[in-house]
Amino acid sequence: MPVITLDDVRAAAATLDGVANRTPVMTSRTLDERVGARVHLKAESFQRGGAFKFRGAYNKISSLAPDVRARGVIAYSSGNHAQAVAIAARLHGTSATIVMPEDAPRAKVEATLGYGAEIVRYDRFTEKREEIGARLAAERGLELVRPYDDPLVMAGQGTTALELLEEVPDVDVLVVPLGGGGLIAGCATAATALRPGIRIVGVEPDAGDDTARSLAAGERVAIDVPRTIADGLQASEPGELTFEVNRLLVDEVVTVSDEEIIEAMAFLFDRLKLVTEPSGAVGVAALLTGATRPRGTAGVVISGGNVGAARFAELLGRR
Predict the structure, then answer these.
(1) Residue 79, SS3?
(2) Active-site residues: which are they?
(3) Are the CB atoms for 134 and 76 separated by under 8 Å?
(4) How far apart are CA 56 and CA 34, in angstroms?
(5) Which end of the chain has fewer CB atoms surrounding its CB within 10 Å, N or C?
(6) Between β-strands 38-43 and 25-26, what pairing exists: parallel, antiparallel or unpaired?
């Protein structure tokens, strides 16, 4: 039995209707010419909380029994899932506790606090967030909302592709940022069901190629915490459930360097006036570098835009 199905994604879409933003699909003639394909960018930077994560967090929290939800929720995240859970909890009238690494981007920390969450800090290089989250959940009686390894979260994230294909039904290749694997698992589930034969490509940072290694090995492979500017893609091992989906549905995983990510961020800003965080720009980086070479019509998920002005200027200043 599959982990999630198209029906699960459609159910999530019904839950999110009128709550999540239906984000725009953007195009660039210059990008099409550079890539040699018709490229459609699904700009999740315009989602509530600035990233796709709201879709899965809201779908999960909506599913909780009222008495469970009332006790509060807890999550671990470097920023985007943190903000999503904080917003979704607030919309449901409950509290959120977020376990965040000490080196999380300042803009993401401030936004999470602004949405009313309590933050518990930890060292991502010496401590395991999963252990901290599980311990606090047990001690405080909170419901754990995992960032990706949960069928309801995956189904929520899959509504990204559902919307894209409703607007651009002839997508031949779908390119998706790949961290823990929840976004691509949900999107691949929806896309392959709606358009059989579509090619699914995941993009990881060079330093964070845990899924590429895992697919090559045929089993989940753990690596050291990746040191990359793409803080949203610093997973050290694919999720158990997400890997079960992705090993069946993902056709290819490619990687891009931090320098290539910065070039993609600059391109998106210059040509589309689109601000993206590093993790959000990896799909376009893969196209611009030729790491993947789509033909026909390509869909690319811009997963988020949560980068502060100072950090954005600093990164582009490295060029």
Answers:
(1) coil
(2) 53, 78, 204, 208, 210, 303
(3) no
(4) 33
(5) N
(6) antiparallel
Q: What is the value of pTM for the model shown?
A: 0.95
Backbone angles phi and psi of 89, in degrees to 5: -65, -45
Written as six digits, the tokens of 242 are 């997400």
* DSSP 8-state class, residue 51: B
Per-residue DSSP letter, 47: S
Interval 263-283: pLDDT, tens: 999 999 999 999 999 999 999
Torsion sign (Cα): 261, 81, 60, 12: negative
pLDDT tens track for 107-165: 889 999 999 999 999 998 889 888 999 999 999 999 999 999 999 999 999 999 999 99
How many residues in total does the chain contain? 319
- Contact between residue 170 and residue 219 where contact means Cβ atoms under 8 Å apart: no
**Distance from C-alpha of 198 to C-alpha of 173, rounded to nearest angstrom:** 6
Q: How many CB atoms lie within 10 A of CB 281?
A: 35
How far is the C-alpha of 32 from the C-alpha of 43, rounded, in Å? 16
Sheet holding 96-101, edge to edge: 118-122, 96-101, 73-76, 143-144
Cβ(38)–Cβ(295) below 8 Å: no
CB-based contact 302:276 (threshold 8 Å): yes
Quick check: 284 and 45 in contact, CB under 8 A? no
